[in-house]
Design brief:
This protein is α+β, with helices and mostly antiparallel strands. 33% of the residues lie in helices and 15% in strands. It contains five helices and five strands, in the order αβββααββαα. α2 packs across α3. The longest helix is centred in the last third of the chain and has 17 residues. The chain starts with 27 loop residues before the first helix and ends in a 12-residue tail after the last helix.
């Protein structure tokens, strides 16, 4: 990954757009971006059945079946894609019959320039709330919101891109 090329911010709310919710199947690029947006942005816990599940920053708790339905792919194509990402060392996959735990390798690099030399979960206990965000990142977010409001026209045009 060439770090000198910089990064872009993607708001998870972008997934609420009619464009994202199209009936067309995803391509590999869209599926990869979807995984990045699905990943936990901080350590989190939830209850599934009678079990408490904890996932770390940069992880996704899902199943191949759920991803296949989400991307409008077959299970085999979805599994081949996940294996390709593993081979490319973009994810680690821990799978059982009922669930798949994906860890995005270098999630920190993808989501926070301050983490450019760290692995995805190396600093998972670090506070990742907005108060700890670097000042330049806060300004970027503010400017993105402002530009989206100024550049979009039409009823409800900016509602899909604001957090």
């Amino acid at each position: 990954m060439n770090k000198k090329r910089g990064y872009v911010l993607l708001w998870r709310s972008m997934q609420d757009s009619e464009i994202w919710d199209s009936d067309d199947p995803f391509d590999m690029r869209s599926a990869w971006i979807d995984l990045i947006m699905m990943a936990a942005h901080k350590d989190t816990s939830f209850i599934m059945g009678k079990t408490r599940i904890t996932i770390l920053r940069g992880q996704i708790y899902t199943s191949v079946r759920k991803l296949a339905a989400r991307w409008r792919w077959g299970k085999d194509k979805t599994l081949r894609f996940l294996r390709l990402l593993e081979d490319m060392e973009m994810i680690r996959r821990d799978a059982t019959v009922n669930r798949t735990l994906l860890t995005l390798i270098n999630y920190g690099v993808l989501q926070d320039p301050r983490d450019s030399d760290k692995d995805s979960n190396e600093d998972s206990n670090k506070d990742t709330n907005e108060d700890s965000t670097a000042p330049h990142t806060k300004n970027v977010r503010k400017n993105v919101r402002k530009n989206v409001r100024n550049n979009n026209t039409g009823e409800g045009a900016n509602r899909n891109y604001e957090e």
